[in-house]
Amino acid sequence: MIIICPSCNRQHKVDETRLSEKVKAAKCVFCGHRFPISRPGDTESEAAKPAEVVQPVHGKEWPRRRIAVSLSKGGVGKTTTSVNLAAGLALAGFKVLLVDTDTQGQAAYMLGVKPKAGLTELMTGEVIAEQCLAEARERLWLLAGGRSLAGVKRLIARKDFRGEMTLTEALTPIDGRFDYVIVDTSPGWDVLTINVLFYVQEVLIPVSLEVMSIQGLLEFSRSLASVQNYHKDLALKYVVPTFFDKRVKQSEEILNQLKAHYNSRLCPPIRYNVRLSEAPGYGKTIYEYAPGSPGAKDYRDLVRRVAGDQTLLS
């Protein structure tokens, strides 16, 4: 029979004839999670709950999702998008984990928190998860990045086997607690970015409406395709135009190019808004700093698009 780990969704083929009737639980060899197993004749209450279903929010059941906010070019609004998407989902009632994999560690600064430990300590096993997770807002937790992640990259690079799964092995035991895991990545293409793409199922790409960002998008798409050859469940789901300014002719032209190439995956643009750049200085999200601003409205629209529910945050 085939049993599926409710934590990491890995399948295990088990010879049922060799199992004692007393065996009621299994341990996943991939993530170490223990879970009950069902047999023919078991009642529904005895069966393990599907991994992808979480507690109802607003009367509905939602799948657990892992989303990377990524592009190899810097300056396109990745961290701004990661923070405000995660905070918006939390405001909508979801439990959200924001993971910062950038050595600059700007997510903590933008949220106005100073964690004593973060992603580095979790991946190296220095402390347990509860000591790494910083509750930044109600229903929003942060695994902070920072300069120490440079050492983690060297650690991954020295591995002879399954180096690309290092992040997955560290996060899988805890990500089952959350409805959404949003992962902010650093500019460039390195071993930690590859780890992120092997961990997530969905990719959201912020693209500033300028020529160099389009070039970066094309290069990143080629690199993403190389990972998809080995990670079949990975999909580019959202392309988010950022710094949209109707006063700039080039913005409209590039937006039309994106519409032609990405069609249904293209999200409404995030308009240029000075409030978005001011909010981090106060350690606030755009919803807290300027809730009536165009930036707040645009990110609320993005939250609805990602969650697939136009009634949220209304």
From TrEMBL:
Residues 65-231 form the AAA domain. Gene3D superfamilies: P-loop containing nucleotide triphosphate hydrolases. InterPro entries: AAA_dom, DNA_Partitioning_ATPase, P-loop_NTPase, Znf/thioredoxin_put. Residues 1-36 form the Zinc finger/thioredoxin putative domain. This is Chromosome partitioning protein. It comes from Desulfosoma caldarium.
